[in-house]
Amino acid sequence: MHFDLKGTKKILFVGLGVLVLLFGIFIYFKLGHKGKNVLSESKQRSSVSAHAKTFRGTNPPFDFTFEYPESWKAHEVIKPQDFNMVQVRGPQDSRTKVIPGIFVTVRTVTVKMTPSEIADAILKKEARIKGFKEILRKDDPIGGVKALRLIFQYVLPLPMRFANAKDTLVKRQEVYLLRKGKEYRISFWLTEEQYKIYKSDLNQALKTFKFLD
Description:
By secondary structure, the chain is of the alpha+beta class. It has helices at about 5-30, 40-45, 115-125, 190-205, and strands spanning about 40, 50-55, 65-70, 75-80, 85-90, 90-95, 100-110, 135-140, 145-160, 165-180, 180-190, 210. It has a seven-stranded antiparallel sheet, sandwiched between helices.
């Protein structure tokens, strides 16, 4: 019997990407329902700070820095045998219960794939979601390293697990880059309305993303 080892590794890789996304969404709602950061839309608009904090985490695995709004909270998740993640969370939207955030995941490369191949594998999964649309796909150097940036959207019933959930347009932005045997994935996950509010903050995070060596 013949097994496609390369294909199996690719499936496992995509599965890890989906796991990371689901873990992030779980954190959004698990921590978000505590109500500590719930803000109305009007307060969200006025909460965007002109000042910023600089993330400087445990190195290794987080051998990089970037700026984020000073009112947002950073949290490190370190799983040496799996993946490592930085979560930077903003104020929760009172209507959809979504917490805007920046996720940066780092993992050791076990399957050699280009950023374009990584994007293709992830989008193959995401394209199955209702209302999927790819908005942007371009090479965009991040931290002096060649990277691929994606922006896409789809529709989800929000708030999740609520009887009154309504179809809501969700914006996603993903950046993939490879460096020194590691894969870095920068992800933004938020509603379209939140994207309009925090777009400049997300762009600032990418603009200021730098490696320490």
